[in-house]
Write a structure and sequence with these properties.
Low-confidence stretches: none
Strand content: under 5%
Structural class: mainly alpha
Number of helices: 2
Number of domains: 1
Number of strands: 0
């Protein structure tokens, strides 16, 4: 269930420090970026 997953990630993010949160966001951004390149290629 995607909604469950969304809530789970929100809860996990709440436990992270701002530094970890920033690192996490960068990873997500990179992953999304790579995925969009792959879908174009």
């Amino acid at each position: 269930d995607p909604n469950w997953k969304e809530g789970y990630h929100r809860n996990r993010e709440a436990l992270l420090t701002p530094e970890e949160l920033e690192k996490f966001r960068q990873l997500e951004k990179n992953r999304r970026y790579r995925r969009s390149i792959n879908s174009i290629a």
